[in-house]
Design goal:
Number of domains: 1
Structural class: alpha+beta
Order of helices and strands: HEEEEEEEEEE
Oligomer: single chain
Distance between the termini: 65 Å
CATH architecture: Beta Barrel
Strand order of the largest sheet: 3-4-5-6-7-8-9-10
Length: about 200
């Protein structure tokens, strides 16, 4: 009788421990997923009536990429902006590119100016944190353009216009993504691709 009772107690204890172990990952995973739900400025939320709207607020990001040319080589960029509840994004950005070197001269380009875009969240449910943002950048440009026909660099200034699109995935207040833009003016024309990371606050 005692042996049977002891075995029953051990069996019950084992079941209890198994239940705790089995339940713990589900709780942890739920907490992790809840913590990674999009929550920063510029992300979507659903109000009490079921309407989807964007959280207004500031966000900032940094980017690293390339313009795939002698003038627009390695590039870095940083932006700060504010998202309005209707999805309009307004901000400022600085970009710098380092290109081909000829002797002691190095081709490079610097842009700084204003940016306007519109945030879209086209996918629901599990991919609700996926943002697509078409935008246009405009501002002064300072370019030292390399020339492949002769080993020299020609410097100039102008007004930059850059249409582009950013795709980002939001994890909590942070996001990571890719940023594609066309360097339309001033010449030389180019395209640039950046990897970007940032956060809303």
């Amino acid at each position: 009788m005692r042996t049977s009772s002891a075995r029953g107690s051990v069996f019950a204890l084992g079941l209890g421990l198994a239940a705790i172990v089995a339940a713990q990952p589900r709780t942890s995973h739920a907490a992790i997923f809840e913590g990674l739900a999009p929550s920063g400025a510029g992300t979507e939320e659903v109000d009490s009536e079921g309407h989807r709207k964007l959280l207004s607020g500031w966000e900032a990001d940094g980017a690293l990429g390339t313009g795939f040319s002698d003038t627009y080589g390695l590039g870095i960029a940083g932006r700060v902006g504010y998202t309005l509840p209707m999805g309009v994004y307004l901000g400022g950005e600085v970009q710098a590119y380092w290109g081909q070197t000829y002797g002691s001269q190095n081709a490079h380009a610097t842009f700084f100016g204003a940016e306007a875009g519109y945030k879209l969240y086209p996918l629901p449910n599990a991919l609700a944190g996926l943002e697509f943002r078409p935008y246009v950048f405009g501002g002064p440009a300072f370019i030292s353009a390399s020339t492949s026909e002769a080993p020299f660099v020609r410097s100039k200034t102008g007004f930059a216009v850059q249409p582009g699109a950013l795709t980002a995935y939001h994890l909590g207040p942070a996001f990571i993504g890719a940023d594609f833009r066309m360097l339309t003016t001033p010449s030389p024309f180019g395209v640039a691709l950046f990897g970007t990371a940032g956060a809303g606050f």
